[in-house]
Amino acid sequence: MFGRLIATAACLILSAQLATADEKTKGKLSIWLGYPETLEAFKLGQAEFKKKYPNVEVEILTFELREFEAKLAVAVPTGSGPDILALHDFLFPRYYDGGVLADVPADLAAVLNDAKVIDAPFKAIVTREGKPWGLPWWTGRNALFYNLDHLREAGLDGPPKTYAEVWSYAEKLTKKSANGELTRAGISLRLTGPSGGTQKFGYFYYQLTGVQMFEAGPTPGTVRVTIKDNLDAAARVLLDHVDHLHGARKSDDWTLKHDAQGFASSAAAMFMRESWVIPFVKKNGPDVKFGVAPVPRDKAWGAFNLIEILSVNKDSTLKDAAWDFVRILQDQAILDNVLQSSGWIPLRHDRDYSAILAQEPRYEPMINTPSGQTQYIEVPNTAYEEVTTRVGEVIQAAFRDGALVDNIEGAKRAMSRAHDTAVKILKDNGIYAP
User: Fold this and answer.
1) What is the rounded CA–CA span in Å between residue 186 and residue 204?
2) Interhelix angle 384-399/194-209, nearest 10 degrees
3) Is CB count within 10 Å lower at the N or C end of the chain?
4) pLDDT computed for residue 221 by the predictor
C-alpha cells in the first residue's frame, strides 16, 4: 500500500510538470524501438503525451533488433535519427562517444542518483565523469527455469540451488531413446549464436569467479579480460559443458530444440534465461508447468542484467518534449504494462509491482533481489559485438570437440585462446586495459 501511495504521488508530480508544457509546440517526435514487444507501453505514453502536446505528431517505428542497430548507426551521426534513443546497454558507449546525447534534465538526474530508486550498477552504465546521459528503464534479469513435471518424474523436489547441482540435475532429467539418442535435454545450453553463447557461458563463469570474463578497466570505456586470472574456473565451466554434450553424461544435443522454444515445447527440463521467458512460455507452451528460481550459486551469486536506456538525441528540435515523453514512461501504469506484456523488469524501486506479482509470482526472484545476490551487467564498450562474437566462436568450437571430455588441460588451452582472442580485439580497438 505504501508503495502505491508513493507511485500515486509521483504521478501527481509528473502531471504537474507536464501541465506546464507548451501546447503551441509543433513538429514530429520520432521514436525507434529495437524491442517491438514494448510498443504497447509506448503507445500508452503516446496517448498521455498527446494531452499535453496536441500539436506534436508522435511517430513510433519498430524494427528487429539487428535492423534497429544498423539503422541507428547510419541515421544518428547524420542528424536524421530519432528524437528519443532507446538504447540497450552495449550500444550506449557508441552514442556517448559520438557526442550525440542531450543533457539529462535535473529532475531525471535526481531519480538516477537516488540509490533507493535506481541500483548503482545501472547508474554507472550511463554516467561519465559524474554526469548522466540517459535513464535506465528496464532490465532483462536472468534466472533458472525448470519444468515441474520433469522434476517430479525424476524424483526431485525442487530446483538446483548450486552450480554443482545444475549438472547433477541435468543428468537425472535427461531422457534418451532405446538407441541412446537424446529426446529431452536435462538442461538446454546455448549452442548457437556466438555472441549470445559468450553471454550465456558467462552466466556460469560468474558464479565460479565472482567476476565477468570482461570487466571494466580503470578508464571509462576500457575493458580488461579476466579469463587467465581465473583459468582453472574457466576451464571447469568449459569442461562441464563439454562433458554434458558428449559421452556418458550427455545432457544436451545440437539436434534438439533449444532456448525458450525448446523449453516451451518440453524439449528441455531446465535452462537459464532472462525474464521475458515467462510470457513467452505462457503463450507458446500454455500446458507447460514451470517454475522460476534464482540462478544457482557457487563461490559467488550474481544475476545477469541487460538494460534498456532512454536518452534524447542532441540534434532533436523537440528536446523538452522528448524528455517529457521519457517522464511519462515512468508512470506506474506504463511500467506495469512493460512487465506484463513483455516480461522486462522495470528498474525503478519507487514503483509498486505487488499487484502483478500477485497474478504472476514467478517474477519474484527477478523483481525482488534475493538477499546476498549481486546484480551485474556486461561492460558496455565499442568492441562489444566483435569481442563477444569471436570469443563465442572459440568457446562453441570447443563444445563440439569430444577430445576435451575429462581433459582439463585441453580445456585450459581452449580458454586461453578465448582470452588471447579478446585481448587482441580490444587492443586493436584501443580499449584494452591490462
Assistant:
1) 16
2) 80
3) N
4) 86
